[in-house]
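Q: Hi! First time asking for a complex rather than a single chain. Here are the components, and I think there are two in total. Is that enough to go on?
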Amino acid sequence: MAQAYWQSGTTAPATFSLFFRSYPPDRSYFVFAGLADVLEYLERFRFTGGDIEGLRSLGKFDGEFLNYLAKLRFTGSVRAMREGSLFFVNEPVIEVTAPVIEAQIVETFLLNQVNVQSVLATKASRVVYAARGRSVVDFAARRTHGTEAADRFARASYMVGFSGTSNVLAGAIYGIPTFGTMAHSFITCFESEAESFRAYASSFPDSSTFLVDSYDTIHGTRNAIEVAREMRQRGHRLQAIRLDSGDLLSLSRKARVLLDGAGLDDVQLFASGGLDEFELDALLRAGAPIDGFGVGTKVGVSADAPWTDCAYKLVEYAGQPVLKLSSGKMTLAGSKQVYRCRDETGDYLRDVIACAGEKAPQEDGEPLLHEVMRNGKRLGPQPTLQELREHFAQGFAHLPECHKSLRSPAPYRVEVSAGLERLQKQATQKVREKELGE
Amino acid sequence: MAQAYWQSGTTAPATFSLFFRSYPPDRSYFVFAGLADVLEYLERFRFTGGDIEGLRSLGKFDGEFLNYLAKLRFTGSVRAMREGSLFFVNEPVIEVTAPVIEAQIVETFLLNQVNVQSVLATKASRVVYAARGRSVVDFAARRTHGTEAADRFARASYMVGFSGTSNVLAGAIYGIPTFGTMAHSFITCFESEAESFRAYASSFPDSSTFLVDSYDTIHGTRNAIEVAREMRQRGHRLQAIRLDSGDLLSLSRKARVLLDGAGLDDVQLFASGGLDEFELDALLRAGAPIDGFGVGTKVGVSADAPWTDCAYKLVEYAGQPVLKLSSGKMTLAGSKQVYRCRDETGDYLRDVIACAGEKAPQEDGEPLLHEVMRNGKRLGPQPTLQELREHFAQGFAHLPECHKSLRSPAPYRVEVSAGLERLQKQATQKVREKELGE
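A: Yes, that's all I need. Here is the structure of the assembled complex.
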């Protein structure tokens, strides 16, 4: 495509909007994530000598075009929402303006990163919501689609309120608290379960969590109690026991009774094993005395909604609004702004998608797209993950509850401004006349 | 865990089995993928100085243990099935034998890679099956969970029979044929759809595929016909048109009639747009005249089955078989072999999971696990992707049709040998007596 643009002299500035066309089942909002990687990619964008030789070897590309590619850098500007913002269907979260080849050639990376990171952040936010203030830890690294996804999930999930991650590398990269745990294999290496607990406690006298279900959860809890008492005699404390299989509601109740009966009411109950927001919700509604959760498998791939209909579409070329009309896939023409309107308590009322230059639909409508890159350079420092976490928490607190339901949440109101509606009508009319002769 | 192993002197050789516990919906087989990355990881495994300093800064680890980690290498052996092999539940696809810390510390990477690559290879194999010999191209890079997953999907899908990928990087890394296409944005940049087709044809006079649904698929097909005739007058040929939205069955029929009526019966019909094996199957059953498919979104994340219950479990420690009894998650003890038994035509009849030393259950039972690494070094060159592709094709041809159905396929027979059953009973009994006092 780039070669055809270049050879035909189609190189004017273009604006692309990145947006999500529809919600997956049981979703009425998305959490925006992925911007940090996008901006870093755009700043570093280039073809290496090896890349160019690889392309040349395909025999499909013109030598002069390859010389052009070798010098290509991203020189455009980017307007975007802040990571950790809530957003809704059809709202651009990123708008890229650059000479069309630059803006086009980065499409796959931008879609890939914003899609996966927003999908995972959204899923994780649902788990935090279901956990009702209890701690949730990322155990997903063994099941995410690759190690890159594991690291991105650790970051996205911490952004939306997880307590930390078992992914030590992601902890180091992003400064996320790391949590260790023992596997069944650790336990089955020892002469007995109790011996394995003793060994672990000896290494981590004040930060041990014992996994109690290797043979039988209740027997394991009794072994944990025995070792926890020995620890107490030495002035230490068992932090928690972990249940990882079976009926977690009934087992957590029984284990709590046993621990409390042994005077170990300060030992927490931690649960894991294929949990997602639906199971957390069911357990906590039923009153399971669980203090924290480790989630992996279903959450780290957003199992009920692993993809979105996320699009990166040309909306303006050479100063003219453009759009496509493909069945069921229409785009909103022109560069845009998204305004968020709140009620007097700060709660979200509605969003309005407007033309970029259009004024806010109500005085206090907050514009969500801000310029973050100009001439290919970032305009400010990357916000810290802690700042994004706070930004998410503040926003989420103001999203009315009805939009957060885990099943069939109410849709949030997203309107198109009068100005954008006019522009859309004109652009559609023009295309229909020109292309379809209507 | 590694520190507790080390400090307690729990450092004997251990064997871990990597296997899949159950099938996701509508699956009766898996395609094994990920071994190449696993072996490369094991050969290169080490903590860098920076890694060690990062761990030290957490304040959780003993200095001597960190010195030990700094020198840690993988010195063990690996037995594995060949990539591209079909495998079934409970069958180990990889067995790792090494001092327990080495074998344990690589768990997350091994599970991560084998899970995602096998999940994606399996999904892609279903699409190839549904396509009934028609060409399928990987368009998934914008939707996979990260760029690493995009490259792995390109490789896995080519291994199981895709024609190629639109992912140019994966094409270069793995030597996979690459296929270009135009986006709607390319078309909407031009004064008219026909002009955009002309520009593309001028750059790629013999390898153009025109996307015809930007405004209206039938109008777009007429524009493509106009430009295809101009191309023919210049001695070139339009390769294909691509339909990307709407009712693909009815549109493909209409487009075929138009093309044939214009004497362009050599122009192929290519379809894309959220397709998966179920939609391909429905289209082709209904007789849609489509010659090739581009698949992305739902296939690149294995949308109906994005995760598996894949496990890496300790089965032998210090020469003794071990297992856990966790509810619903039992493991088969001891180092194992998997034998595949075929009928006289070579078709798969049943598999038998046996002890590693046990002889084949029938004379011609083929052992599937072979040593591929010893003392931390690979034993032979990595098979080429082309070889793996042929290996898959041969295997898949011999899997009876009933196990390939896209919906509710018949389960394949997997048995446990008499020897393994005995060992399992003994190990279970021993654990029950020791741990549960039974």
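A: Chain A is about 40% helix and 20% strand. Let me know if you'd like any chain examined more closely.
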